[in-house]
Design a protein that fits this description.
Blueprint lengths: L3 H4 L6 H7 L9 H5 L14 E3 L4 E3 L2 E2 L3 E4 L2 E3 L2 E8 L4 E3 L2 E8 L2 E3 L2 E8 L4 E3 L2 E8 L4 E3 L2 E3 L6 H4 L14
Parallel strand pairs: 1-4, 2-5, 3-6, 4-6, 5-7, 6-8, 7-9, 8-10, 9-11, 10-12, 11-13, 12-14
Length: 169
Amino acid sequence: MFSKSRINEPGPKADETAKDSGAHSAGKTPKSESSVPMSTAPKTKAPASVLSTDLTVVGNLKSTGDIQIEGTVEGDIRAHLLTVGETATVRGEVVADDVVVNGRVIGRVRGLKVRLTSTARVEGDIIHKTIAIESGAHFEGSVQRQEDPLAQGAKGGAQPPKPAEPPKA
């Protein structure tokens, strides 16, 4: 049935290696990889993307993960968790599940949880589900609580629709 030499071979045959052409890492056979379902592999959370103090970004940022800003961003930011560092300046709309502002934001802030620390400087409206403003934070704008503040992006903001004007004759 099975030859002993075939069972103890350390890897795929030469013709199988040519077919796979680097698709498998050294020492692993296709059989060993396929025996472990992909769904059982542990998923680790990616670390936060950090924009350092010497970096200026002109444009929008979008991530399903976490972003930590220490430099300057001139554009809109969308993320899962956004941390604006003490040395950071953001000019644009900020949208995230969790927003922590330690630095400066010039523009609208939308988040399920919004936190302004004592070093925060925000010039713009805040739309939130829950908010915390520490003593010493500087804030100029309006605050509005909504059950789903993240849904407003598709509708163009938190302002109510304007009534239609009658046609001019």
